[in-house]
Amino acid sequence: MSTEPSVQPEGARSRFPLDTVYQAARMYYLEDATQAEIADRLGVSRPTVSRLVSEARRAGLVRIEVVDPFRDETVALAAELRDALGLRAVRLAAVTHQATLGADLAAPVAAAIEAMALAPGDAVLVSSGSTVHDLAHTGLPPMPGVQLVPTVGGQADPNRWFQTNEITRAAAERSGAIPAFLFAPALPSETLRASLDDDPAFQHVVGLWRRAKGALLGIGAPVVTRHELARGLPVEDEAFDRAAGDVCLNFFAADGSAVEFPGSDRMVRTSREVLAAVPHAVGVAVGPGKATSILGAVRGGLVNELVTDAATARAVLDVLA
After folding, report:
1. Could you tell me the fold of the domain covering 71-320?
2. Distance between CA atoms of 240 and 260, rounded to whole angstroms?
3. Which fold does the domain 1-64 belong to in CATH?
4. CA–CA separation, 45 vs 127, rounded Å?
5. Residue 18 and residue 307: Cα distance in Å, rounded?
6. Residue 45 and which of 60, 107, 108, 298 are 20 to 30 A apart at CA?
7. Top-confidence residue, 64 or 141
8. H-type helices in 211-307, by residue range?
């Protein structure tokens, strides 16, 4: 007579008797027994032991915790950087990798969004840039009913990092939010820019900018180190040589002062003044090469919170030392 546990009917809570599932899991996880030992003690086959252990996890009898060995160090480092920069909050990922940036930053970004205490109908601004692009596709928490709003023009930009409507759409699709769209280039002609002021769809977006409760804002690197910028910007202009970075195409020097250039007065972008009024303006940037960019964004009042990683945080503190 077979001693194998009987399979329960389809739709039952477990395919195996619960006591058998528990005993297999206890021996495997608490006694470090081998599958062969467990099979012998329970009178089942080794493949059945594997199924029992998997069933224990599925049924919630086993809870596995992966402990971050850098947590205490990361929390202390975040507090140190927050105080040094005078920010509302700094949230750090212990380690990031360019290939998995959105996933690596997902936890600190989720914490920043949770702190916004969003309700359906609230507006959150979304910038362009590679980091925000990755977050939009892989690293955002649920935000049902929240309005996600692009902060800059970029409708026809060939680079996906500056396709602001696409970034906003992807972010909304992942988070359950509602996307708004901005149908304009980053640097329109004088005629087009003048017509936007009379366009109801554009004015709707401007209104959302002004009442935004939060923002996810990529902090761009120093312009001289970048291979690409938004389409139409006069990158040959000498003004860009001293640009330590940008937030929503608001370019700034290392001291935070504005960097202007031909056409900057007609840029389609959320202004510095509007960004300064956002309650939770979360700058997102990774890489020691962005240390001066982060400092410029903070000094210019463009962000009041920060998400980054531990290596970048140390680099910023080194610049301040």
Report:
1. Rossmann fold (3.40.50)
2. 8
3. Arc Repressor Mutant, subunit A (1.10.10)
4. 56
5. 44
6. 60
7. 141
8. 272-276, 291-299
